[in-house]
Amino acid sequence: MQIHNISKQNSVLNTFISEIRDHKIQKDSMRFRRNIERIGEILGYEMSKILSYKSSVIETPLGNCKIDLLANDIVLCSILRAGLPLHNGLLNYFDASENAFISAYRHHKTSSEDFEIIVEYLACPTLENKTLILADPMLATGQSMVATFEALKPFGKPKDIHLISIIGSQYGIDFIEKHFNNDVHIWIAAIDNNINEKGYIIPGLGDAGDLAFGNKLQQ
Q1: Regions of the chain short of the pLDDT cut 50
Q2: Which of 35, 137, 143, 203 is the most buried (most CB within 10 A)?
Q3: CB-based burial of residue 175 (10 Å sphere; 0-12 exposed, 13-18 middle, 19+ buried)?
């Protein structure tokens, strides 16, 4: 797996990451969602640099202009519900993409530390020979990303695969490396070293879905 940790080079991305982590700023849910969206735009832009392009001719009012345009057939798949602002940010840049949505959540069987990933809803076009962008804002244990990818397999074999997350744990990175091929790319804005006994990233930012859309009842 090829890991692109965008935070290794300082940029305005640092500002948006700091604001979604700051427990005082993140209380503004609209600002939190917008920052997630902006981070998605930055990650999408960085990813676009290694996609495929083809030469095109554009007719302007004063003549013709040659330019290389994106050639990938993209399917953008996000994990509900936390993935919606990240999806919007990516869609702002890849606006011709087809879209897929999947629900994947933690089901706590006996305790807060013991859980399994449940996939209940999936809407997806064919993935055959297309570029799959699988987006989940928080890559904690990596189980949701792997479960989602397994659920997508009946829809065809993608030509290439890009995983996009905002904050991940090193544990989660190591976990998904065992389940994806070496040619898969992961684009991430920050990597934290630890997760706690409940499977949350430390220092992380908390529950991205709750911060974006409000608290939920635990399942």
Answers
A1: none
A2: 137
A3: middle
